Amino acid sequence: MARSTFVYVTYIRTTPEKLWSALTDVEFNKRYWFGMHCESEWTTGSSWRLVSGDGQIFDAGEIVEAERPRRLVIRWQHRNKPELKAEGDSLCTMELEPSGPAVKLSITHTIEREASKLIVAVSGGWPKVISNLKSLLETGSAVLQDPYPLQSVDSGKK
């Protein structure tokens, strides 16, 4: 079967324990995920949800694997946009690996379908979310305030 995959790798000056906490703590999530947060017990088999500030569930699924503070695998289904929800479950794997004074964070998001609209969407979202996470952990503040840039009047014109 065909597969669509997005991979994002970054190095964050922190410890695996602090990064794991940042990925799994509701209040910390809100500081880098544009007001959204993840809800879960963070144990294998527990439910998982990505919730907006007003309580809307954008994504939901299940923790497939949780090996604190090394590896987290989430079965993930988008719930907000019908065309993305129709694609079904995807799998998001987060691996945390010590690397000197930093932690290598690798995120691999896959779905068993070719030319996935969901993978196109997460490929725009993950870099913004993780850039904010990296900045917040390293400097104490997130770098981006809006998940989607405002369109300029001249966009698309040369």
Give the biggest sheet. Answer: 7 strands, antiparallel
- The ordered string of helix (H) and strand (E) elements is EHHEEEEHEEH
- Overall 3D form: globular
| Biggest sheet strand line-up | 1-7-6-5-4-3-2
Ranges where pLDDT stays below 50 over 5 or more residues in a row are 150-158
Radius of gyration, in Å, reads 16 Å
Helix content: 25-40%
Alpha-beta classification: alpha+beta
Strand content: 35-45%
Kindly report the average pLDDT value: 92
Description:
It contains four helices and seven strands. With 158 residues, it is α+β, with helices and mostly antiparallel strands. It has a seven-stranded antiparallel beta sheet with strand order 1-7-6-5-4-3-2. The longest helix has 23 residues, at 117-139. The relative contact order is 0.22.
